[in-house]
Specification:
Blueprint (H helix, E strand, L loop, with lengths): L7 H33 L7 H15 L2 H21 L4 H31 L3
Length: about 120
């Protein structure tokens, strides 16, 4: 079994992707906070306040971009290496899974906040 350490290039790229997701999460949090604030006083469906809340929600959804991009890039990195090498060394696989799990956790938290705002707006 190949127990070599994670390749430096892979470790570096995974760290970059996780950092991008974390940074994007900060921007998402600000947008989601605003969407929650506006949704709290949205009023009846189709009212001006409700439409403003939907616009704020759309901004929060758009702010998820760095997280969703990082998830896709991590998956693609693993798939590309798997295809090119015909397999993954255990430590490379573990590093990819770990980065994917961390970014996946961020993604799930963001999705939960979006769902809560949507529910508040009756969407």
């Amino acid at each position: 079994m190949n127990q070599r350490p994670v390749s430096a290039a892979l470790a570096s790229r995974l760290a970059e992707l996780v950092a991008e997701a974390r940074s994007g999460d900060a921007a998402f949090a600000a947008a989601a906070d605003e969407a929650e604030r506006v949704a709290a006083s949205a009023g009846a469906p189709q009212s001006e306040g409700w439409i403003a809340a939907q616009q704020a929600l759309s901004s929060a959804i758009a702010a998820r971009g760095p997280t969703t991009a990082a998830i896709g890039d991590i998956d693609a990195l693993g798939a590309t290496r798997l295809q090119a090498q015909g397999g993954l060394a255990p430590n490379d696989l573990a590093a990819i899974k770990s980065a994917g799990a961390e970014v996946g956790s961020i993604d799930q938290r963001q999705a939960d906040r979006i769902k809560a705002i949507q529910a508040r707006l009756g969407l």
